[in-house]
Amino acid sequence: MEGLVSLKTTPPGLSFHASPPSTSARNLSLVRRSLPASSMGTRRRNGVVSIRAQQSETKDESATVSPANGDVETALKVKEWEVGMFHNEVAATQGIRIRRRPPTGPPQHYVGPFEFRIQSEGNTPRNILEEIIWHKDVEVAQLKERRPLFRLKNALDSAPPTKDFVGALRAAYQRTGLPGLIAEVKKASPSRGILREDFDPVEIAQAYEKGGAACLSVLTDEKYFKGSFENLEAIRNAGVKCPLLCKEFIVDAWQIYYARTKGADAILLIAAVLPDLDIKYMIKICKMLGLATLVEVHNEREMDRVLGIEGVELIGINNRNLETFEVDISNTKKLLEGDRGQKIREKDIIVVGESGLFTPDDIAYVQEAGVKAVLVGESIVKQSDPRKGIAGLLGKDISS
Ligand SMILES: O=C(O)c1ccccc1NCC(=O)[C@H](O)[C@H](O)COP(=O)(O)O
Fold first, then answer.
1. Does ligand 1 lie within 6 Å of residue 356's CB atom?
2. Is residue 203 exposed (0-12), middle (13-18) or buried (19+ Cβ within 10 Å)?
3. Segment 63-87, tens digit of pLDDT
């Protein structure tokens, strides 16, 4: 199976290196939490063997961890790996190509009782989105360790009340006759590098608001976008009234709570990354916290999946293929044609056209296709006066 590493028994007597696990039991629960209960047990597939039996047969004296701990930790590590692989298999049945990071780290560390055969680039991300997600998994595990959910409670209780993200988009559409603008506070991106050197997130946010933006999107990923949760918090605390989207790569429900503590009013869920069960679960959490969810799709299959999920109010169609960086705004039109467009109208879902929008003609094109909101970063953040950038993008001054 593509992307999987197969475990096979090998003749006894080969050495067994019980290297300390890079992940812990806690991380196992991270992986498990998004799987249906039915998938929790040990799975046996062709070539995947019972861990405990194999270890006791062939364990080498040169192993550096104590036998008891080593057995348990190694068994856990391999179980984590199995569960992670199963997660990827479930995701693949939904057409999700982005694999989650192998939870045990490089499986080459397991030698001896098992023979590892790498069937493809199982340990190397295949594209930028996968790389971002693999990095995010590690980052979130570390953040969670420092601030477990119960420690966020006080911050959650004292977070400012949420603002109505969806309502603001509807109101802007009514007011201007143009798609409601979600203006993105974006310093850099993997595809374009640094977009703006003199980057003051609060100043930019205030300029967007004055320029008539309905909502703001604040990138919080540091490694690939040079964003931060401090930016989100600073914008919220500066008295900006626009509802704020926390533009993050969400892989774990913990991030949703964290975003709320930093003042988010909405979060992004990427269908190319999250199986349906995760999306449903996360939407429920958002509703509980008063957050809106922007569920992002890129192709017909993702759109059909998301249209089958109850409670979705906002669907973003990304014109940028996050695996290849190709931008094509006709993607928005393609995904809104025929039955899909009909279903969206029946469900009264607001569609947000995302990425690659630069001119009034681009805006008119996606509006004609059926969007009622747009998410724009590059074309406005690069302008010396982002406020004027908005008027240039939309072809008219919409500041109120
Ligand atoms: O912008 C990127 O290069 C990028 C790469 C990989 C994953 C996500 C990426 N962008 C996130 C976005 O969706 C955009 O920031 C957003 O739609 C605004 O796009 P644009 O107006 O083209 O800056």
1. yes
2. middle
3. 344 556 667 777 777 777 677 777 7
